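Tutorial handout. Part one gives the primary structure; part two gives the three-dimensional structure as tokens.
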Amino acid sequence: MRFTKTLLCLMLMVPLLIIFGCSNDRLPQEVTAEEKRLEIVLKENPTTGYSWTMDDFDTTVLQLEKDEYSASPTEGTVGSGGTHLYRFTGQKEGNVTLTFRYYRNWESKDTAIVVRSYSIFVTDDGKIHSVDVKNKE
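Part two.
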């Protein structure tokens, strides 16, 4: 009887794992990857002089669709920040590294107080297969 319950439980869980997958479970909160779309949303506060800048990358593998800062709903409050959205679409198979630097644009990139790098693998049909995160703070 116990074996039957265990087997039944496994039979119910396996299809759910196949349907929902496990690949995005390890992604940090700021990253969303679904099919051919990749979004990275980073907190930013340009009132401090700091903003995110993205290094060059292979645009034949990933194409940048959106690069946009949005103030938080408390806009107008002195010193309030917001978020910076980067949206990409997979184009073709390959590996690409996206590196973001949080620094004051009148200073050198080497002065960045935060560097975030994401290694992305795109499949031949343009789907985002994996995202590995390498942050340096």
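Part three, for discussion. Residues 2-24 have pLDDT under 50 and may be disordered. The radius of gyration is 19 Å.
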